[in-house]
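Usage example:
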Amino acid sequence: MTSSPFPILIVIVPLISAFFIPIIGWWKRNLCYPLVILSLFFCTLFSILTLNAVIQNGTIHYYLGGWHPPWGIEYVVDHLNAFVLAIISFTSFFVAIYSKKSVEQELPDKIVFFYAVYLLLVTGLLGIIATGDMFNLYVFLEIASLAAYALIAIGEDGAPLASFRYVIMGTIGACFYLLGVGYLYIVTGSLNMADLSELLPKLYHSKVVLVAFTFFMVGIALKMALFPLHTWLLDAYTYAPSTVSALIAPTMTKVGAYVMIRVMFTVFKPDFSISLFPITSILGWLAVAAILFGSIMALAQSDLKRMLCFVIVAEIGYIAIGVGIANRMALIGAILHIVNDVFMMACLFLVVGAIVYKTGTRNIYQLRYLHRKLPLTMAIFVIGALSVVGIPPLCGFFSKWYLILGAFEAGKWVFVAVLLVSSLLNAILFFRVIENIYLEPREPSYAHDGGGPEAISIDEAPLSMLIPMFVIGAGIILLGVFSGKIIDVVIQHTIPPTI
Amino acid sequence: MEGVYSISPLLAMLASLIGAFLILFTGEKNRNLREFWTILASVITFSIICSMIPIILNGKIIEYTIVNICPGVYLQFRVDAFGMIFATLASGLWIAVSIYSIGYMRGLKEHAQTRYFFCFAIAIFGAVGAALSANLLTLYMFYEILTISTFPLVAHKESPDAIKAGRKYLAYLLTGAAFVLFSIGLTYYLTGSLDFVAGGFVEGHGSKNLLRLLFFTFMIGFGSKAAIMPIHEWLPSAMIAPSPVSALLHAVAVVKAGVFCCLRVIHYVFGPNVLSDLGVWLILAYFVSFTVIMANIIALTQDNLKRRLAFSTINNLSIIILGAALLSADAIKGSMIHIPFHGFMKITLFLCAGSIYVKTHKESISEMDGIGRQMPFTMGAFTIGALGLTGIPPVCGFISKWFLCLGAIEAKQIIFLCVFLISALLDAAYFFPIIYTAFFKKPVDINPHFDEAPILVVAPIVVTATFSIIFFIFPDAFLNFFKMATMATQNILGIG
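Running the assembly step on the lines above writes:
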């Protein structure tokens, strides 16, 4: 058992910085941005070092204040959360770099508070992932949610109302989770995950434990926007400022998915959550509904950002279907999809932000000729879009591949069909947009004069936006090509051995 | 079979990929440099692939592994004789089409030329990658790259019709790809392996009915690209694309990749033993026989030259699959050499259609009275290609058809021999009127004096037509197509 201060540093660095930002911003506004970048850079660095250490030496433990578990709060970083930590901090770092111009344009007088809350949100997300304590997880869940409510509420018209709906739904979700924690504490007297997982097997037939587990699942399903509990997501993510959507959309729901996997397979053991409780088949069929509903509803949208919100609903379905199938291949697919989806959604939402920054519109039908104005941004959009469709060697294909293999192994042919149909629906969805951007319908004439679309010259997004988009886009390709390696080194260790 | 570990397959792939990005970054600013990259990339790709021929002829296979994708499956290249046939065809004809494209696109002052040349290079990248793939997953990856990169080419004109054709193309091919992915997943589930083995590797896995289902989902999937009826509709619609693209679709990469994949599945996933055991080869053979005859009958009714050629392609693709499905040595050999030979002949015909369009803007056969007087080189080459597809010596089409007929006799399937012969008769019935129109009818609105298309357009046509004749006299000339097809056949049937 190795001990290392990194798990706590990953959480503390953005937390402390969040406190300093208003002070420094009061003195000099321009220093906020560098401070955010600096703190998130260290955060990313620490989480990558942690990942490396976990790969080398196995699970890392850190006892807060030196109190040993189960009395004190413990941070546990194993392969699963080391990997998710690295991805989330990496993404929030690059979204922060990207934020500069977009925030200056959309929220010119709120920059200081924006960055303070931004860091709090990142703190919350990283805390949820790093902690090994059920109640501590709830605390971070609330930090992240409150920060998210605030960030969403500062968006365009309709955002305060959307945020209010999110507050209500999010609070209900958090309450369910907290009730679950309370019930478990009543029967076991412990809040530590590792401790719980040892105490619980004796109590698996207790009604209290069953109810607690149900509460957990409902609460988490709300937080991760699993169909039919996704309704808060659509308005909230659509009306939020571009940068906020680019951070929240990829990360929040995926962290929810992480918590679900953690609760189902660490706190409770697979033989409870798979065999004793019908949760996996419920999850599987809800996921089918989520995938079909999300993809089909996305077809009906003309607002690009709202369309992507429905795509998220479908993508969450992918993760849930993997957990629902609950065999080795499918879980590899689900965990791989958590990571892939963070990158794909970050990529697409960043591109949407850049489009809004440059043109002020998100309507799919007004994007014509954009490839002449923003050639690089549009190329990155195509990469993200093709990845969601599932074209190899982009990363979206590989999670789908493992999910399909898992479904075959479980004999669930309907799920295979749904996964394939959904990639066709995604193809319609994204090629509709790509066609609108790239193709320039015209009557067949063979002598083109100089006017018309040819006159549009390149007017790319600023470099501070392009670089993050480019990095995430490259990440989509690399995650795809090296997915075999990632599974070998990391993901296969995250699958519970009894599966 | 002895394996040689070599980086050549990767280099060949990188040449076309890097070439594509050089084209993109050079852009419209410096057109000559951009075209130079196209030619350079095509020549380098072709030479690297040719450099592997001697090793293959020595009975070895070339392997190169990039990364592990999932347990037991690698992103891997394995070059065998069959893959080599398709790789040399695709990369060799790329050179011809590139030169032709430059003349064609500039001659018509087409828009978005950078996108055109970029997508073209990526399409070739996909086709060569599919040819060199070692397993189904690698094959699927390049197959999808090919599908996506051809979409902008099909929709190139960006007229409402062209966009519709592009959508149709994607709808058919992506649905096909979903079937393919289903089949690949099922194969992996049943066998735990995806590596191609000459003679198949599914034997002894899964129940007979499951294997039958697997075979048909594979055929529906890859058959969508090979334009087997009734999933052929996208191909005639895609004729709206510029002529060099049609040439790419028909002769070089796209539909040939479909046929190539079908043959891979028939011989390298299932293998003759399993197929005759399951009895599915006969069903497939009857199915494609219908396409063979029906496509030719429809071709008779087409007045648009490119559409007529499109149905001729559908006919020939199904002939190739029919030959493969007969499972006899000569039929397999015949179907394999028909891939490159049909490529050379069909590219000649499409380039001719393009050449006529560049010069006269005519697309209908009924308007081409006496065009042979204005464009003797073009129409001369057209005649050679048409004779070849009909199966008349001294053009290479005769050789492949000869072996296909021998194969049908060897398999004791006289009915399929009749299919081959009737199809040849129908070929004659729709090609000869064009030749007659071109040379013997009096010009109506055609300039009766010599006035050929630009040299960059005519030169590739003459070259490919010449090759079509050379391959009749020496089927092994330069690229050893015949020897490689023989080797591949022996490996599949486990003889020699």
